[in-house]
Design a protein that fits this description.
Blueprint lengths: L27 H29 L4 H23 L13 E3 L4 H9 L7 H23 L8 H23 L10 H20 L2 H5 L1 H13 L8 H4 L19 H29 L5 H17 L8 E3 L2 H9 L4 H16 L1 H7 L4 H26 L6 H17 L11 H7 L2 H15 L27
Antiparallel strand pairs: 1-2
Length: 471
């Protein structure tokens, strides 16, 4: 096997002791460049839910802009809780936390239940607060489910995370209009960005190779300017400074039906975050054990409970950034903490936030193919180490992948009024549906509690340096 060159990171240890790459502090220039790269990769995911909800309930463009700023601000707080943390809060892994898109459907349902849709936000915020508090209380118990995630289960779930994210990249290539075919311009921009990213990864070395995704987005945007695919209008009327004042849309209301819906969503988000932490643990070479997962879930749920104070929504881990960590091999959590700080600043300055929005979606889509595909490849690597030829592992993986792909292939598959709305929230999430199936089948076939099959080495990410394999 060819040796993968190691990147240079400065240790935080004053005595010069060896420090795990996750805990190493990079120089300021690398922190800023790496943090901005994570912002670029996750920006669209953070702003999409408030854009959809704001338009659905009839908010004005100025109010929607405010809602987007609040989402960025609260995503920054949640990311800092996850990467830096305090007490028993925060996984201390390079995790980006942001608004969960899984919450869009139940939030729209809450809006439909109100006499006036514009009155939905206080009800949504009240439900999110209760769900966040419930999740925080359940975190130390929920993390014990880790014993039901042996490699055959975790590998299946990690693969599903990558596969379910790929349609997001395809939607970006279609410029956010999946109902129509991608134009030649869209395909050209996505293909050019993908080619630039791959070329830079192949030709560059050291730090420049690590920020190939960021450089690819810049080059792709520059290519898009002459063809008229860059929209600068978001920056024209944006304010320089804007603080998301507490309870801008009114004090929270607590409606039982909305609370039940959001609590179910919280459990789904906790399941997905657990799977994401397992995936990231494989990528960075630090096992996500019960304690790590408990701290990570506390960060997720505390961030969720606090977000409505600043007009934000439920937060969860962003799987797309796992792909970025895998591609760049920059595992420092302080890089992602810098991303969180940038989100906070973007939330406080709408004009700077709008500058990120000028990156054309097809350009993001081209880079997304690499990012999300790498997550799926990581899951396949875990499955291979799990031993698909052993026992019923192949049957567990195959069935779970099939169930998890149903909502990916057909978004209307479960649009049946006979299916309870709470169950539909789980079924509509490919990761949650596949995860539940994998855990259930593994238990059914007698695989409970088996962390690593006999004679199977500890799993490491295929891009990890040889010296850290099986760490």
């Amino acid at each position: 096997m060819a040796t993968v060159p190691r990147f240079t990171e400065r240790s935080t240890a004053p005595d010069g002791d060896d420090v795990h790459p996750v805990d190493r502090l990079l120089p300021p220039g690398k922190l800023i460049a790496g943090g901005f790269q994570h912002v670029a990769a996750s920006y669209a995911g953070v702003v999409a839910p408030p854009l959809v909800l704001g338009a659905y309930i009839g908010l004005s463009p100025l109010e929607i802009t405010f809602l987007v700023g609040a989402a960025l601000f609260t995503a920054g707080i949640a990311t800092l809780l996850q990467t830096i943390g305090f007490w028993k809060v925060g996984a201390r892994l390079p995790f980006v936390n942001g608004v969960s898109f899984a919450g869009v459907a139940p939030m729209l349902a809450v809006a439909d239940a109100q006499p006036h849709k514009r009155d939905a936000l206080p009800v949504i915020y009240g439900a999110v607060i209760v769900a966040g508090v419930l999740g925080f209380v359940l975190a130390p118990y929920f993390c014990k489910l880790i014993r039901f995630f042996p490699p055959v289960v975790s590998g299946t779930v990690i693969t599903l995370i990558g596969i379910t994210l790929l349609p997001v990249a395809f939607g970006w290539i279609q410029d956010g209009h999946p109902e129509r075919p991608a134009s030649l311009t869209d395909l050209g921009l996505a293909g050019a960005t993908l080619a630039v990213v791959l070329g830079l990864r192949r030709l560059l070395k050291g730090f420049l190779q690590q920020i190939a995704i960021l450089l690819g987005l810049v080059v792709g945007t520059l290519i898009a300017i002459p063809v008229g695919a860059v929209d600068f209008s978001p920056a024209e009327h944006a304010r320089l400074v804007g603080f998301p004042g507490p309870f801008h849309f009114g004090a929270p209301h607590f409606a039982v039906s909305a609370i039940v819906s959001m609590c179910v969503l919280m459990l789904v988000c906790m399941t997905e975050s657990t799977a994401d932490m397992l995936a990231l643990g494989e990528v960075v070479g630090r096992e996500a054990d019960e304690k790590v997962i408990a701290r990570g879930l506390r960060a997720d749920t505390l961030g969720t409970a606090v977000s409505p104070l600043f007009n934000g929504f439920a937060n969860s881990a962003f799987a797309q950034n796992i792909g970025l960590v895998a591609i760049t091999r920059v595992r420092s959590r302080f890089v992602v903490a810098t991303c969180g700080l940038m989100f906070v600043l973007l939330g406080l300055s709408p004009v700077f936030a709008s500058l990120i929005a000028v990156v054309p979606r097809p350009v993001l889509g081209g880079a997304g193919i690499v990012l999300f595909g790498s997550v799926a490849a990581s899951g396949v690597n875990v499955l291979l180490k799990a031993g698909l030829d052993r026992g019923d592992n192949l049957l567990v993986a195959a069935t779970s992948l099939g169930v998890g792909l149903i909502p990916v292939v057909s978004r209307t598959f479960y649009d049946n009024t006979a299916i309870p709305s709470t169950l539909k929230i789980i079924l509509d999430s490919g990761v949650s549906a596949g995860c539940v199936t994998a855990v259930a089948l593994n238990l059914l076939f007698g695989g409970a509690g088996e962390k690593n099959p006999p004679d199977t080495p500890a799993v490491s990410h295929p891009l990890a340096p040889p010296s850290e394999q099986n760490r």
